[in-house]
Fold this sequence. Notes:
The structure holds two protein chains of two kinds.
Chain A: H1 22-36, E1 43-47, E2 62-65, H2 71-81, E3 86-92, H3 93-99, H4 101-110, E4 115-120, H5 155-162, E5 166-171, H6 175-187, E6 192-197, H7 213-223, E7 224-226, H8 227-235, E8 245-252
Chain B: H1 3-13, E1 16-21, H2 28-37, E2 44-47, H3 51-63, E3 67-72, H4 74-90, E4 94-102, E5 108-112, H5 117-122, E6 131-133, H6 138-155, E7 158-164, H7 165-169, E8 215-217, H8 232-247, H9 250-253, E9 256-259, E10 265-269, H10 273-283, E11 289-294, E12 296-298, E13 313-318, H11 323-329, E14 336-340, H12 349-357
Amino acid sequence: MTFTDWLRADRLPHIYCAGCGNGTVINCTLNAVDQMGWKKEETVFVSGIGCSSRAPGYIVTDSLHTTHGRALAFATGIKMANPALNIVVFTGDGDLAAIGGNHFIHACRRNIDLTVVCMNNMIYGMTGGQGSPTTPPGALSTTTPYGSEEPAFDLCELAAAAGANYAARWTSYHVKELTHAVLAGLRTPGFSFIEALVQCPTNYGRRNKFRQPLDQVEYFKTHGMLVEKVRRLHEEGREIPPDTIVLGELARRNRPAMGVKR
Amino acid sequence: MQGNVACAEGALAAGCSFFGGYPITPSTEVAEHMAQRLPRKGGTFIQMEDEIASIAAVIGAAWTGARAMTATSGPGFSLMMENIGFAVMTETPCVIVNIQRGGPSTGQPTMSAQADMMQCRFGSHGDYSIIALSPASVQEMYELTAAAFNLADRFRVPVFLMADEIIGHMRERIEIPDSVPKVERKLLKQGVLPFHPDDDLVPGFPQFGKGYGVHVTGLTHDERGYPCATNPRVHEQLVRRLVEKVEGKRHEIADYRVTNPDAELVFITYGSPARTVEQVVHDNPGKEIGHLRFRTVWPFSENALREFPNARAFLVPEQNLGQMAREIERHTSVPVIRLPRFGGALHTPGELVAALEGLK
Protein backbone atom coordinates (compact mmCIF):
# COMPACT_ATOMS: atom_id res chain seq x y z
CA MET A 1 0.00 0.00 0.00
CA THR A 2 0.95 3.62 -0.29
CA PHE A 3 -0.48 6.62 1.51
CA THR A 4 -2.98 7.21 -1.28
CA ASP A 5 -4.66 3.90 -0.43
CA TRP A 6 -5.76 5.51 2.84
CA LEU A 7 -7.59 8.32 1.08
CA ARG A 8 -11.35 8.24 0.59
CA ALA A 9 -11.33 8.92 -3.14
CA ASP A 10 -15.07 9.62 -3.46
CA ARG A 11 -14.71 12.53 -1.04
CA LEU A 12 -12.14 14.38 -3.14
CA PRO A 13 -11.61 17.18 -4.01
CA HIS A 14 -11.10 18.42 -0.48
CA ILE A 15 -12.21 21.76 0.92
CA TYR A 16 -8.74 23.17 1.57
CA CYS A 17 -7.77 26.45 -0.07
CA ALA A 18 -5.19 26.58 -2.84
CA GLY A 19 -1.74 26.72 -1.26
CA CYS A 20 -2.89 25.34 2.12
CA GLY A 21 -0.31 23.33 4.07
CA ASN A 22 -2.76 20.88 5.63
CA GLY A 23 -2.68 18.46 2.70
CA THR A 24 1.07 18.09 3.12
CA VAL A 25 0.59 17.14 6.77
CA ILE A 26 -2.15 14.64 5.90
CA ASN A 27 0.15 13.04 3.30
CA CYS A 28 3.06 12.84 5.76
CA THR A 29 0.81 11.34 8.44
CA LEU A 30 -0.73 8.76 6.10
CA ASN A 31 2.73 7.89 4.85
CA ALA A 32 3.81 7.18 8.42
CA VAL A 33 0.63 5.24 9.18
CA ASP A 34 1.18 3.21 6.02
CA GLN A 35 4.74 2.39 7.08
CA MET A 36 3.38 1.06 10.39
CA GLY A 37 1.60 -1.65 8.41
CA TRP A 38 -1.60 -1.09 10.36
CA LYS A 39 -4.83 -2.55 9.08
CA LYS A 40 -7.47 -0.04 8.11
CA GLU A 41 -10.08 -1.70 10.31
CA GLU A 42 -7.81 -1.35 13.35
CA THR A 43 -7.17 2.34 12.81
CA VAL A 44 -9.38 5.27 13.80
CA PHE A 45 -8.86 8.94 13.02
CA VAL A 46 -10.42 11.47 15.39
CA SER A 47 -10.66 15.24 15.11
CA GLY A 48 -12.37 18.31 16.55
CA ILE A 49 -13.45 21.37 14.59
CA GLY A 50 -11.55 23.56 12.17
CA CYS A 51 -9.67 23.15 8.90
CA SER A 52 -7.32 20.50 10.33
CA SER A 53 -10.23 18.54 11.69
CA ARG A 54 -11.77 17.96 8.28
CA ALA A 55 -8.89 15.59 7.51
CA PRO A 56 -10.46 12.35 8.87
CA GLY A 57 -13.34 12.83 6.44
CA TYR A 58 -10.90 12.16 3.60
CA ILE A 59 -9.54 8.94 5.08
CA VAL A 60 -11.07 5.52 4.51
CA THR A 61 -10.88 4.21 8.07
CA ASP A 62 -13.46 4.64 10.80
CA SER A 63 -13.33 8.26 11.83
CA LEU A 64 -14.97 10.55 14.36
CA HIS A 65 -15.27 14.25 13.56
CA THR A 66 -16.30 15.62 16.94
CA THR A 67 -17.05 18.94 18.64
CA HIS A 68 -14.71 21.91 18.91
CA GLY A 69 -11.78 21.22 21.21
CA ARG A 70 -12.96 17.84 22.43
CA ALA A 71 -11.25 15.41 20.05
CA LEU A 72 -8.85 14.18 22.73
CA ALA A 73 -11.67 13.46 25.18
CA PHE A 74 -13.56 11.45 22.54
CA ALA A 75 -10.33 9.67 21.56
CA THR A 76 -9.68 8.85 25.21
CA GLY A 77 -13.05 7.10 25.38
CA ILE A 78 -12.38 5.10 22.22
CA LYS A 79 -8.89 4.07 23.31
CA MET A 80 -9.84 3.14 26.86
CA ALA A 81 -12.85 1.15 25.68
CA ASN A 82 -10.88 -0.67 22.99
CA PRO A 83 -7.06 -0.41 23.35
CA ALA A 84 -6.64 -2.66 20.31
CA LEU A 85 -7.53 0.27 18.06
CA ASN A 86 -4.73 2.53 16.79
CA ILE A 87 -5.81 6.13 17.13
CA VAL A 88 -4.52 9.21 15.39
CA VAL A 89 -5.95 12.62 16.24
CA PHE A 90 -5.85 15.55 13.85
CA THR A 91 -6.25 18.93 15.47
CA GLY A 92 -5.34 22.56 15.02
CA ASP A 93 -3.95 25.33 17.21
CA GLY A 94 -7.34 26.78 18.10
CA ASP A 95 -8.98 23.40 18.59
CA LEU A 96 -6.15 22.01 20.71
CA ALA A 97 -4.75 24.94 22.64
CA ALA A 98 -7.70 27.31 23.10
CA ILE A 99 -11.05 25.58 23.53
CA GLY A 100 -9.39 22.19 23.99
CA GLY A 101 -6.47 23.24 26.19
CA ASN A 102 -7.72 21.44 29.26
CA HIS A 103 -8.23 18.17 27.42
CA PHE A 104 -4.77 18.56 25.88
CA ILE A 105 -2.89 18.81 29.17
CA HIS A 106 -4.92 16.02 30.75
CA ALA A 107 -4.42 13.67 27.81
CA CYS A 108 -0.67 14.41 28.12
CA ARG A 109 -0.82 13.84 31.89
CA ARG A 110 -2.55 10.50 31.41
CA ASN A 111 0.06 9.79 28.75
CA ILE A 112 -2.70 7.92 26.93
CA ASP A 113 -1.57 5.98 23.88
CA LEU A 114 -2.66 8.38 21.14
CA THR A 115 -0.74 10.10 18.37
CA VAL A 116 -1.80 13.71 17.94
CA VAL A 117 -0.89 15.68 14.85
CA CYS A 118 -1.53 19.41 15.26
CA MET A 119 -1.66 21.51 12.11
CA ASN A 120 -0.60 24.83 13.58
CA ASN A 121 -1.43 27.61 11.14
CA MET A 122 -1.34 30.23 13.92
CA ILE A 123 -4.83 31.43 13.00
CA TYR A 124 -8.50 30.41 12.95
CA GLY A 125 -8.70 29.62 9.26
CA MET A 126 -12.20 28.13 8.99
CA THR A 127 -13.88 31.16 10.54
CA GLY A 128 -11.95 33.68 8.49
CA GLY A 129 -8.69 34.54 10.22
CA GLN A 130 -9.04 35.34 13.92
CA GLY A 131 -6.15 35.31 16.38
CA SER A 132 -5.37 32.00 18.09
CA PRO A 133 -3.25 31.02 21.12
CA THR A 134 -0.31 30.47 18.76
CA THR A 135 -0.63 33.70 16.79
CA PRO A 136 2.80 35.32 17.22
CA PRO A 137 2.96 38.65 19.06
CA GLY A 138 2.54 41.45 16.56
CA ALA A 139 0.86 39.30 13.91
CA LEU A 140 -2.25 40.63 12.24
CA SER A 141 -5.58 38.83 12.25
CA THR A 142 -9.21 39.98 12.09
CA THR A 143 -9.35 40.06 15.89
CA THR A 144 -5.85 41.47 16.32
CA PRO A 145 -6.08 44.27 13.75
CA TYR A 146 -3.34 46.25 15.53
CA GLY A 147 -1.08 43.24 16.00
CA SER A 148 -1.46 40.47 18.57
CA GLU A 149 -0.61 41.68 22.06
CA GLU A 150 -0.70 38.26 23.68
CA PRO A 151 2.22 35.86 24.02
CA ALA A 152 1.87 32.63 22.05
CA PHE A 153 1.80 29.09 23.43
CA ASP A 154 4.72 26.76 22.74
CA LEU A 155 2.64 23.63 22.16
CA CYS A 156 5.53 21.16 22.36
CA GLU A 157 6.76 22.62 25.66
CA LEU A 158 3.22 22.39 26.93
CA ALA A 159 2.93 18.73 25.90
CA ALA A 160 6.28 17.84 27.41
CA ALA A 161 5.60 19.69 30.66
CA ALA A 162 2.21 18.01 30.97
CA GLY A 163 3.71 14.51 30.66
CA ALA A 164 3.64 13.39 27.02
CA ASN A 165 6.08 10.64 26.07
CA TYR A 166 6.91 12.23 22.73
CA ALA A 167 6.84 15.77 21.35
CA ALA A 168 8.27 17.01 18.05
CA ARG A 169 7.90 20.08 15.86
CA TRP A 170 8.36 20.32 12.09
CA THR A 171 6.74 22.30 9.31
CA SER A 172 5.09 21.78 5.95
CA TYR A 173 8.52 22.45 4.38
CA HIS A 174 10.15 19.52 6.22
CA VAL A 175 8.09 16.67 4.77
CA LYS A 176 10.65 13.89 5.30
CA GLU A 177 11.40 14.95 8.86
CA LEU A 178 7.70 15.41 9.62
CA THR A 179 6.93 11.93 8.30
CA HIS A 180 9.71 10.47 10.45
CA ALA A 181 8.43 12.35 13.48
CA VAL A 182 4.88 11.05 13.00
CA LEU A 183 6.30 7.56 12.56
CA ALA A 184 8.30 7.92 15.77
CA GLY A 185 5.14 9.12 17.49
CA LEU A 186 3.11 6.18 16.21
CA ARG A 187 5.80 3.80 17.48
CA THR A 188 5.99 5.40 20.91
CA PRO A 189 3.62 3.96 23.52
CA GLY A 190 1.85 6.74 25.36
CA PHE A 191 0.95 10.24 24.27
CA SER A 192 2.80 11.43 21.16
CA PHE A 193 2.48 15.00 20.02
CA ILE A 194 3.63 16.21 16.63
CA GLU A 195 3.25 19.88 15.85
CA ALA A 196 3.34 20.76 12.16
CA LEU A 197 3.55 24.45 11.34
CA VAL A 198 1.55 25.07 8.18
CA GLN A 199 1.07 28.01 5.89
CA CYS A 200 -2.39 29.52 5.63
CA PRO A 201 -2.14 31.81 2.63
CA THR A 202 -5.83 32.73 2.72
CA ASN A 203 -6.09 33.91 6.29
CA TYR A 204 -2.63 34.24 7.79
CA GLY A 205 -0.15 34.77 4.98
CA ARG A 206 -1.91 37.54 3.13
CA ARG A 207 -2.23 39.61 6.30
CA ASN A 208 1.32 38.99 7.43
CA LYS A 209 3.60 39.73 4.50
CA PHE A 210 3.56 36.27 2.96
CA ARG A 211 1.96 37.21 -0.32
CA GLN A 212 2.45 33.79 -1.89
CA PRO A 213 1.95 30.43 -0.16
CA LEU A 214 5.59 29.54 -0.72
CA ASP A 215 6.72 32.76 0.99
CA GLN A 216 5.61 31.32 4.33
CA VAL A 217 7.07 27.90 3.53
CA GLU A 218 10.34 29.69 2.74
CA TYR A 219 10.08 31.41 6.12
CA PHE A 220 9.73 28.04 7.85
CA LYS A 221 12.85 26.90 5.99
CA THR A 222 14.97 29.93 6.81
CA HIS A 223 13.81 30.41 10.41
CA GLY A 224 13.74 26.77 11.49
CA MET A 225 16.61 25.60 13.66
CA LEU A 226 17.22 22.13 15.03
CA VAL A 227 16.71 21.85 18.75
CA GLU A 228 20.21 20.40 19.14
CA LYS A 229 21.69 23.53 17.56
CA VAL A 230 19.50 25.78 19.68
CA ARG A 231 20.71 24.02 22.81
CA ARG A 232 24.34 24.23 21.70
CA LEU A 233 24.07 27.95 20.98
CA HIS A 234 22.43 28.40 24.33
CA GLU A 235 25.23 26.51 26.11
CA GLU A 236 27.83 28.54 24.26
CA GLY A 237 26.07 31.70 25.36
CA ARG A 238 25.48 32.75 21.77
CA GLU A 239 22.48 34.64 20.60
CA ILE A 240 19.43 32.81 19.27
CA PRO A 241 17.31 34.97 16.96
CA PRO A 242 13.96 35.70 18.68
CA ASP A 243 11.86 34.48 15.73
CA THR A 244 13.61 31.11 15.57
CA ILE A 245 11.33 28.10 15.06
CA VAL A 246 12.75 25.29 17.19
CA LEU A 247 12.53 22.05 15.24
CA GLY A 248 13.07 18.39 16.02
CA GLU A 249 12.31 16.05 18.90
CA LEU A 250 11.59 18.12 21.98
CA ALA A 251 10.67 15.21 24.24
CA ARG A 252 11.18 11.47 24.06
CA ARG A 253 10.86 9.29 27.12
CA ASN A 254 9.22 6.17 28.38
CA ARG A 255 6.91 7.06 31.24
CA PRO A 256 4.06 4.72 32.19
CA ALA A 257 1.24 5.09 29.69
CA MET A 258 -2.51 4.43 29.63
CA GLY A 259 -4.53 2.61 27.01
CA VAL A 260 -1.58 0.73 25.51
CA LYS A 261 -2.59 -2.33 23.50
CA ARG A 262 -2.55 -5.37 25.78
CA MET B 1 -29.22 0.01 49.13
CA GLN B 2 -28.73 3.65 48.22
CA GLY B 3 -30.43 4.96 45.07
CA ASN B 4 -27.20 6.00 43.41
CA VAL B 5 -25.64 2.60 44.12
CA ALA B 6 -28.74 0.89 42.72
CA CYS B 7 -28.32 2.99 39.58
CA ALA B 8 -24.73 1.77 39.18
CA GLU B 9 -25.79 -1.83 39.87
CA GLY B 10 -28.59 -1.56 37.30
CA ALA B 11 -26.07 -0.34 34.74
CA LEU B 12 -23.71 -3.23 35.51
CA ALA B 13 -26.59 -5.71 35.23
CA ALA B 14 -27.36 -4.24 31.80
CA GLY B 15 -23.78 -4.86 30.70
CA CYS B 16 -22.44 -1.33 30.99
CA SER B 17 -18.69 -1.65 30.45
CA PHE B 18 -17.59 1.99 30.34
CA PHE B 19 -18.13 4.83 32.75
CA GLY B 20 -16.62 8.28 32.24
CA GLY B 21 -17.44 10.83 34.90
CA TYR B 22 -16.51 13.77 37.07
CA PRO B 23 -17.37 14.13 40.76
CA ILE B 24 -20.41 16.25 41.51
CA THR B 25 -22.89 16.25 44.37
CA PRO B 26 -25.38 14.59 44.61
CA SER B 27 -24.45 12.07 41.91
CA THR B 28 -20.92 11.12 42.98
CA GLU B 29 -21.82 7.76 44.53
CA VAL B 30 -22.72 6.47 41.07
CA ALA B 31 -19.15 7.16 39.88
CA GLU B 32 -17.62 5.87 43.11
CA HIS B 33 -19.50 2.60 42.87
CA MET B 34 -18.60 2.20 39.20
CA ALA B 35 -14.94 2.93 40.04
CA GLN B 36 -15.01 0.09 42.49
CA ARG B 37 -17.00 -2.43 40.48
CA LEU B 38 -16.18 -1.89 36.78
CA PRO B 39 -12.46 -2.78 36.72
CA ARG B 40 -13.18 -6.10 38.42
CA LYS B 41 -15.74 -6.91 35.74
CA GLY B 42 -13.30 -6.16 32.92
CA GLY B 43 -14.82 -2.78 32.20
CA THR B 44 -13.33 0.70 32.21
CA PHE B 45 -13.85 3.48 34.69
CA ILE B 46 -12.20 6.78 33.92
CA GLN B 47 -12.45 10.03 35.83
CA MET B 48 -12.25 12.74 33.20
CA GLU B 49 -11.10 16.35 33.61
CA ASP B 50 -14.64 17.76 33.42
CA GLU B 51 -18.15 16.84 32.37
CA ILE B 52 -17.56 17.92 28.76
CA ALA B 53 -14.80 15.35 28.55
CA SER B 54 -16.89 12.78 30.45
CA ILE B 55 -19.71 12.72 27.92
CA ALA B 56 -17.18 12.91 25.07
CA ALA B 57 -15.37 9.82 26.37
CA VAL B 58 -18.71 8.04 26.80
CA ILE B 59 -19.64 8.77 23.18
CA GLY B 60 -16.20 7.61 22.00
CA ALA B 61 -16.53 4.39 23.99
CA ALA B 62 -20.02 3.81 22.62
CA TRP B 63 -18.63 3.79 19.08
CA THR B 64 -16.44 0.82 19.99
CA GLY B 65 -19.64 -1.06 20.80
CA ALA B 66 -19.56 -0.55 24.57
CA ARG B 67 -22.60 0.20 26.67
CA ALA B 68 -21.38 3.47 28.13
CA MET B 69 -22.69 5.81 30.80
CA THR B 70 -21.98 8.96 32.77
CA ALA B 71 -23.64 10.48 35.82
CA THR B 72 -23.82 14.11 36.88
CA SER B 73 -25.96 16.89 38.30
CA GLY B 74 -27.00 20.43 37.31
CA PRO B 75 -23.73 22.29 36.56
CA GLY B 76 -22.17 19.21 34.97
CA PHE B 77 -25.36 18.59 33.02
CA SER B 78 -25.13 22.12 31.62
CA LEU B 79 -21.55 21.47 30.51
CA MET B 80 -22.59 18.31 28.69
CA MET B 81 -25.18 19.96 26.49
CA GLU B 82 -23.09 20.50 23.35
CA ASN B 83 -21.87 16.92 23.22
CA ILE B 84 -25.36 15.61 23.95
CA GLY B 85 -26.36 17.29 20.70
CA PHE B 86 -23.40 15.55 19.06
CA ALA B 87 -24.67 12.21 20.36
CA VAL B 88 -28.11 13.00 18.94
CA MET B 89 -26.73 14.03 15.55
CA THR B 90 -24.39 11.03 15.28
CA GLU B 91 -27.05 8.66 16.72
CA THR B 92 -24.78 7.43 19.48
CA PRO B 93 -26.42 5.21 22.10
CA CYS B 94 -25.44 6.33 25.60
CA VAL B 95 -26.93 6.77 29.05
CA ILE B 96 -26.72 10.02 31.03
CA VAL B 97 -27.77 10.03 34.66
CA ASN B 98 -28.79 13.35 36.20
CA ILE B 99 -29.32 13.31 39.96
CA GLN B 100 -31.02 16.68 39.99
CA ARG B 101 -30.18 19.37 42.52
CA GLY B 102 -31.36 22.94 42.95
CA GLY B 103 -30.33 25.50 40.36
CA PRO B 104 -29.68 27.81 38.58
CA SER B 105 -25.89 27.82 38.79
CA THR B 106 -24.27 26.17 41.81
CA GLY B 107 -27.62 26.52 43.56
CA GLN B 108 -28.23 23.85 46.16
CA PRO B 109 -25.72 21.03 45.73
CA THR B 110 -27.20 18.82 48.43
CA MET B 111 -30.89 19.52 47.93
CA SER B 112 -33.37 17.83 45.65
CA ALA B 113 -34.92 19.40 42.56
CA GLN B 114 -36.57 18.48 39.26
CA ALA B 115 -35.74 21.68 37.46
CA ASP B 116 -33.69 20.20 34.60
CA MET B 117 -36.64 18.49 32.90
CA MET B 118 -36.84 21.04 30.10
CA GLN B 119 -33.06 21.30 29.79
CA CYS B 120 -32.94 17.54 29.33
CA ARG B 121 -35.47 17.79 26.51
CA PHE B 122 -34.29 20.98 24.82
CA GLY B 123 -30.90 21.93 26.31
CA SER B 124 -28.70 21.43 23.28
CA HIS B 125 -29.10 23.62 20.22
CA GLY B 126 -31.18 22.59 17.24
CA ASP B 127 -34.35 20.52 16.92
CA TYR B 128 -34.11 16.99 18.26
CA SER B 129 -35.74 14.44 20.51
CA ILE B 130 -34.45 12.22 23.29
CA ILE B 131 -35.75 9.70 25.81
CA ALA B 132 -35.86 10.41 29.55
CA LEU B 133 -36.89 8.16 32.42
CA SER B 134 -37.71 9.21 35.97
CA PRO B 135 -37.38 6.77 38.88
CA ALA B 136 -39.43 7.18 42.07
CA SER B 137 -37.74 4.51 44.20
CA VAL B 138 -34.42 2.80 44.70
CA GLN B 139 -35.86 -0.25 42.95
CA GLU B 140 -36.59 1.93 39.93
CA MET B 141 -33.09 3.41 40.02
CA TYR B 142 -31.95 -0.13 39.30
CA GLU B 143 -34.68 -1.11 36.84
CA LEU B 144 -34.88 2.08 34.83
CA THR B 145 -31.10 2.44 34.50
CA ALA B 146 -31.00 -1.04 33.02
CA ALA B 147 -33.96 -0.18 30.78
CA ALA B 148 -32.24 3.03 29.65
CA PHE B 149 -29.47 1.04 27.95
CA ASN B 150 -32.01 -0.97 25.97
CA LEU B 151 -33.79 2.17 24.80
CA ALA B 152 -30.46 3.81 23.90
CA ASP B 153 -29.39 0.81 21.82
CA ARG B 154 -32.78 0.39 20.16
CA PHE B 155 -33.30 4.01 19.18
CA ARG B 156 -29.66 5.13 19.01
CA VAL B 157 -30.27 8.21 21.13
CA PRO B 158 -28.90 9.51 24.42
CA VAL B 159 -31.22 8.25 27.15
CA PHE B 160 -31.49 10.20 30.39
CA LEU B 161 -32.18 8.91 33.85
CA MET B 162 -33.70 12.07 35.35
CA ALA B 163 -33.60 11.22 39.05
CA ASP B 164 -33.46 13.68 41.90
CA GLU B 165 -31.36 13.99 45.04
CA ILE B 166 -34.06 12.42 47.22
CA ILE B 167 -34.25 9.25 45.14
CA GLY B 168 -30.47 9.20 44.60
CA HIS B 169 -29.67 9.34 48.29
CA MET B 170 -32.67 7.38 49.57
CA ARG B 171 -31.96 3.94 51.03
CA GLU B 172 -34.52 1.20 50.45
CA ARG B 173 -34.65 -2.53 50.30
CA ILE B 174 -34.65 -3.70 46.68
CA GLU B 175 -35.05 -6.94 44.79
CA ILE B 176 -32.26 -7.66 42.35
CA PRO B 177 -33.37 -9.98 39.55
CA ASP B 178 -31.14 -12.79 38.28
CA SER B 179 -30.91 -10.97 34.98
CA VAL B 180 -32.41 -7.95 33.23
CA PRO B 181 -33.92 -7.94 29.71
CA LYS B 182 -31.36 -6.98 27.10
CA VAL B 183 -31.93 -5.54 23.62
CA GLU B 184 -28.90 -5.99 21.35
CA ARG B 185 -27.68 -3.02 19.36
CA LYS B 186 -28.62 -3.65 15.73
CA LEU B 187 -25.41 -3.68 13.65
CA LEU B 188 -25.24 -2.23 10.15
CA LYS B 189 -25.77 -4.79 7.41
CA GLN B 190 -23.00 -5.05 4.83
CA GLY B 191 -23.77 -3.17 1.65
CA VAL B 192 -26.10 -0.69 3.35
CA LEU B 193 -25.08 2.97 3.64
CA PRO B 194 -24.08 3.72 7.24
CA PHE B 195 -26.79 6.31 7.87
CA HIS B 196 -29.51 4.73 5.76
CA PRO B 197 -32.38 4.04 8.16
CA ASP B 198 -34.31 0.80 8.34
CA ASP B 199 -38.12 0.84 8.46
CA ASP B 200 -37.97 1.85 12.12
CA LEU B 201 -36.06 4.99 11.02
CA VAL B 202 -32.99 3.77 12.94
CA PRO B 203 -29.87 2.90 10.90
CA GLY B 204 -27.82 -0.18 11.77
CA PHE B 205 -24.79 0.59 13.93
CA PRO B 206 -21.43 0.65 12.08
CA GLN B 207 -19.28 -0.17 15.10
CA PHE B 208 -15.67 1.06 15.03
CA GLY B 209 -13.05 -1.61 14.47
CA LYS B 210 -15.34 -3.88 12.44
CA GLY B 211 -14.17 -2.75 9.01
CA TYR B 212 -17.11 -0.50 8.15
CA GLY B 213 -14.83 2.47 7.49
CA VAL B 214 -17.54 4.85 8.63
CA HIS B 215 -17.11 8.61 8.88
CA VAL B 216 -19.06 9.97 11.83
CA THR B 217 -19.57 13.72 12.01
CA GLY B 218 -21.68 16.20 13.91
CA LEU B 219 -22.08 18.11 10.67
CA THR B 220 -25.26 17.56 8.72
CA HIS B 221 -24.48 14.43 6.74
CA ASP B 222 -26.00 12.32 4.00
CA GLU B 223 -26.66 8.59 4.26
CA ARG B 224 -23.00 7.89 3.50
CA GLY B 225 -22.12 9.88 6.61
CA TYR B 226 -20.42 12.52 4.49
CA PRO B 227 -20.75 16.20 5.43
CA CYS B 228 -23.50 17.88 3.47
CA ALA B 229 -24.07 21.00 5.48
CA THR B 230 -25.48 23.43 2.93
CA ASN B 231 -28.22 21.33 1.35
CA PRO B 232 -31.57 22.33 2.92
CA ARG B 233 -33.27 19.11 1.84
CA VAL B 234 -30.63 16.83 3.37
CA HIS B 235 -30.72 18.76 6.64
CA GLU B 236 -34.49 18.77 6.88
CA GLN B 237 -34.75 15.07 6.11
CA LEU B 238 -32.10 14.20 8.67
CA VAL B 239 -33.53 16.31 11.48
CA ARG B 240 -37.09 15.16 10.80
CA ARG B 241 -35.94 11.54 10.98
CA LEU B 242 -33.95 12.09 14.19
CA VAL B 243 -37.09 13.52 15.81
CA GLU B 244 -39.58 11.12 14.26
CA LYS B 245 -37.69 7.94 15.18
CA VAL B 246 -38.39 8.83 18.82
CA GLU B 247 -41.61 10.87 18.74
CA GLY B 248 -43.28 8.45 16.34
CA LYS B 249 -42.80 5.69 18.90
CA ARG B 250 -43.81 7.74 21.95
CA HIS B 251 -46.85 5.62 22.83
CA GLU B 252 -44.76 2.48 22.59
CA ILE B 253 -41.95 3.96 24.69
CA ALA B 254 -44.52 5.29 27.19
CA ASP B 255 -44.22 3.82 30.67
CA TYR B 256 -46.53 5.05 33.40
CA ARG B 257 -48.58 3.81 36.34
CA VAL B 258 -52.30 4.49 36.78
CA THR B 259 -54.13 4.48 40.12
CA ASN B 260 -57.91 5.00 40.37
CA PRO B 261 -58.64 5.80 36.70
CA ASP B 262 -62.25 6.83 37.46
CA ALA B 263 -61.17 9.64 39.77
CA GLU B 264 -62.10 13.24 39.11
CA LEU B 265 -59.10 14.73 40.86
CA VAL B 266 -55.88 13.30 39.54
CA PHE B 267 -52.31 13.84 40.66
CA ILE B 268 -49.67 13.60 37.94
CA THR B 269 -46.13 12.93 39.12
CA TYR B 270 -42.68 11.61 38.28
CA GLY B 271 -39.75 11.12 40.63
CA SER B 272 -39.90 11.79 44.35
CA PRO B 273 -43.18 13.80 44.54
CA ALA B 274 -44.83 10.50 43.60
CA ARG B 275 -43.95 9.26 47.06
CA THR B 276 -46.00 11.96 48.79
CA VAL B 277 -48.94 11.32 46.47
CA GLU B 278 -48.73 7.60 47.21
CA GLN B 279 -48.98 8.46 50.90
CA VAL B 280 -52.05 10.65 50.28
CA VAL B 281 -53.74 7.92 48.24
CA HIS B 282 -52.87 5.39 50.94
CA ASP B 283 -54.32 7.62 53.66
CA ASN B 284 -57.54 8.18 51.69
CA PRO B 285 -58.73 4.74 50.62
CA GLY B 286 -61.42 4.72 47.98
CA LYS B 287 -61.37 5.62 44.33
CA GLU B 288 -61.58 9.38 44.60
CA ILE B 289 -57.96 10.35 44.22
CA GLY B 290 -56.33 9.43 40.94
CA HIS B 291 -52.61 9.16 40.38
CA LEU B 292 -50.78 9.09 37.07
CA ARG B 293 -47.08 8.47 37.58
CA PHE B 294 -44.72 8.79 34.62
CA ARG B 295 -41.67 6.49 34.58
CA THR B 296 -40.92 7.67 31.05
CA VAL B 297 -41.07 11.45 30.93
CA TRP B 298 -39.78 12.13 27.40
CA PRO B 299 -41.07 11.56 24.78
CA PHE B 300 -44.33 12.67 26.37
CA SER B 301 -47.25 10.35 25.68
CA GLU B 302 -50.50 12.32 25.75
CA ASN B 303 -52.41 9.01 25.71
CA ALA B 304 -51.57 8.67 29.40
CA LEU B 305 -53.86 11.59 30.18
CA ARG B 306 -56.78 9.75 28.52
CA GLU B 307 -56.53 7.02 31.17
CA PHE B 308 -58.56 9.38 33.36
CA PRO B 309 -61.77 10.09 31.39
CA ASN B 310 -63.55 11.65 34.37
CA ALA B 311 -60.71 13.99 35.30
CA ARG B 312 -61.90 17.40 36.48
CA ALA B 313 -58.43 18.63 37.38
CA PHE B 314 -54.87 17.46 37.04
CA LEU B 315 -52.73 18.39 40.03
CA VAL B 316 -49.03 18.39 39.27
CA PRO B 317 -46.68 18.48 42.26
CA GLU B 318 -43.14 19.07 40.98
CA GLN B 319 -39.85 20.21 42.46
CA ASN B 320 -39.76 23.13 40.04
CA LEU B 321 -42.01 25.98 38.94
CA GLY B 322 -44.11 23.74 36.72
CA GLN B 323 -41.96 22.38 33.91
CA MET B 324 -43.89 19.19 33.13
CA ALA B 325 -47.17 20.91 34.05
CA ARG B 326 -46.59 23.12 31.04
CA GLU B 327 -46.17 20.07 28.84
CA ILE B 328 -49.33 18.48 30.26
CA GLU B 329 -51.31 21.69 29.58
CA ARG B 330 -50.40 21.41 25.91
CA HIS B 331 -52.25 18.12 25.63
CA THR B 332 -55.47 18.57 27.60
CA SER B 333 -58.41 20.89 28.16
CA VAL B 334 -58.69 19.67 31.77
CA PRO B 335 -57.42 22.39 34.14
CA VAL B 336 -53.84 21.76 35.23
CA ILE B 337 -53.02 22.90 38.76
CA ARG B 338 -49.35 23.53 39.39
CA LEU B 339 -48.12 22.56 42.82
CA PRO B 340 -44.50 23.65 42.92
CA ARG B 341 -42.45 22.88 46.00
CA PHE B 342 -38.77 23.50 45.59
CA GLY B 343 -35.74 24.67 47.45
CA GLY B 344 -35.13 21.14 48.63
CA ALA B 345 -38.22 20.49 50.74
CA LEU B 346 -40.62 17.88 49.42
CA HIS B 347 -44.40 18.39 49.42
CA THR B 348 -46.02 17.16 52.61
CA PRO B 349 -49.14 15.00 52.43
CA GLY B 350 -50.99 17.80 54.24
CA GLU B 351 -50.17 20.29 51.49
CA LEU B 352 -51.48 17.96 48.81
CA VAL B 353 -54.64 17.18 50.77
CA ALA B 354 -55.22 20.91 51.17
CA ALA B 355 -54.89 21.32 47.40
CA LEU B 356 -57.54 18.62 46.93
CA GLU B 357 -59.85 20.25 49.48
CA GLY B 358 -59.68 23.49 47.55
CA LEU B 359 -61.11 21.73 44.49
CA LYS B 360 -63.97 19.89 46.17
